[in-house]
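We treat protein structure as text, and this decision shapes the records that our systems exchange. Such a record has a labelled line for the sequence and another for the backbone structure tokens. The record that follows is passed on verbatim for readers who wish to inspect the format:
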Amino acid sequence: MDLGIAGKWALVGGASKGLGRGCAEALAAEGVNVVLVARGAEALAKTTAEIQAAHPKVQVQMVAVDITTAEGRAVVFAHHADFDIVVTNAGGPPPGAFRDWSRDDWIKAVDANMLTPIDLIKTTIDGMIARGFGRIVNITSSAVKAPIDILGLSNGARSGLTGFVAGVARNPEIAAKGVTINNLLPGKFDTDRLAGTMVGAAKKTGKSIDEIRALQAGQIPAKRFGTAAEFGAVCAFLCSQQASYLTGQNILLDGGAYPGTY
């Protein structure tokens, strides 16, 4: 299927690895020019070179900054001002116990996982409206639908973003102008972040990493973890011409782990 987005420009956050990279690769494969953003310059340069080599007909550029800061975002938009597609993505806050989280911890979580995506939407959406096309995809978390107690910082910040998107995506000044805003909610994907949580679980339980992997995968109806390529393919579809009637939605990708009907 031709998604009809060749030649568009996309901004992808957290793009050096994991789900962000999966989205960047999928968009580049559709002929989209991509600007990759991440903090780690070395990993980002490697990813940029690999995607460019795989898709030589598109422009693959990188900006190594922290997009959760105003200074970082200013550098990104000085590099390239107008985007047709924006994939917001930033690492989630650390797990822990709610009694241990200070006000500063909460402010940092909300700033990175709620206010940063909102600012990216504000900065890019008017240009999208003027051009009559825009796709904004926010990578949030399955915890928005099924909160995880040790991820309270993420639960709170991402739920705030979800509520904001539910309203703004339905604004006729946006929805009637060819601009959609949706959220992608990943469950357990085989990424570095998941591997990090397994190390912690192994230390806590005394089980091996392999045992933890098998146990967690076994709890998913699909009996496996997702891949970044699968995630990227869904992201690319949300950015397509065919998805123009899909907006304000929370798309859950978790292998069936969420047990609810709604």
In short: Strands lie at 9-12, 33-38, 60-64, 85-88, 134-139, 179-186, 250-253.
